[in-house]
Amino acid sequence: MKEHKGFTGQLGFILAAAGSAVGVGNLWRFPYLAAKNGGGVFLIIYLLMVFTVGFALLTTDLAIGRKTGKSAIYAYQSMNSKWKFLGIFTFFVPVIIMTYYAVIGGWILNYIKYFLTGQVTLAADDACFSNFISSNSSVYWSLAFMVLTAVIVFGGVEKGIERVSKIIMPILLIMVLGIAIFSLTLKSTTDNGDLRTGLEGLLVYLKPDFTGMTIRRFLQISLDAMSQLFFSLSVSMGIMITYGSYVKKEVDLAKSVSVIEIMDTAVAMLAGVMIIPAVYVFLGVEGMSAGPGLMFISLPKVFFQMGPAGRIIGLVFFILAAFAALTSCISVLESIVANTTEILNTKRKSTTIVLSAVYLIATAVIALGYSKFYIEVSLPNGSTGQLLDIMDYISNSFMMPLIAFLSSIFIGWVMKPEWIIDEVEYGGKKFTRKGLYIIMTKYCLPVIMFILFLISTGIFTY
Length: 462
Ligand code: PHE
Fold this sequence. Notes:
Pfam families: SNF (PF00209). By secondary structure, the protein is mainly α.
């Protein structure tokens, strides 16, 4: 057991794990999906899923980590040597995500610069984002973000990750809350004289919109919610196994899972309150575009429209986004470092240095995917993308549902849920959702994950 390194206690662990979970996914992807999927309808489905599916997946990962004291590869191997392949497969998810996460982090840093130096008009320009990502400076910013991540991971679990999370997470929560409240006070008059208010925008977000609801559409919304959930909770990618392996035995796992779920979901929900009313007031609901477009194109326009206050709000927004991305990015690198030191039996610090060097190169390559290495590939799910989207597709749409499917078969039917439950109840702790956990792991997850896998890979269309 790794008694020498780990989180100092429950709070440090929860904030680090929540830091991994709360990332850019909460800030742009969740609000966008909610706006696209009938507001409140999506919110209700998502909430139901977090406390059933998300809860089961998160509990499984953390308990595997703590019980085995190892990262994915050796964790699965020590449970059952025939299932080592699942550990190896899981290890590759962070390996892939790490190639592009610092790139997004770098983009955020650049937008901090825009708002810090008052280049709001430039940031709000239609072509600004595409010009920027195809320029060399996007590569430099991405490398800077990678270096920042590497330095923190180099500092170690307690002195690096835990310390940074303990500072960043509370500030992030306050910032999100602050902008969300501000967003509700906004109003503007459209060209044809209509008054639009933030509170109306809030209604667009919260009110369930059942118009045109069919079973097919309902299914589609559920699938969107499900894939968002995975990404958002950082589950089925070995990261929570690694973090679990650093948790002390006296920590209450069931309670920690609840707090992490609540924090991650609260930030996602609040990001919606922060973004949707503001976009609604200044750009109308049509302003909610997909993907990075929302964060880097629509929002700068919104901040621009806010006038002088927009510069401050924009700055705060991008700083909080950088915080969110940073604590996620360190969890990805940490998981790779932990697995590698276990496989190669190397020292943590030297491993971190070597891996960081490798990822500096990878980050540069992916960042150049919009200029020098530009390619356009159609993905099996029907969209087209550049290098970054390809990596994102492989890890999120292909590997994660497959891993969740295989690991629920493994836990539900090979190891049996009791194996996990024993760990959660260790030292007489209470596991209130035990019954739910068993049903989810044995029956629901294998079926749901298999369907999600078939659909997100495009093997099955409906
Ligand atoms: N959970 C993070 C988010 O919501 C994303 C993430 C993915 C973090 C993979 C770590 C690893 O943005």
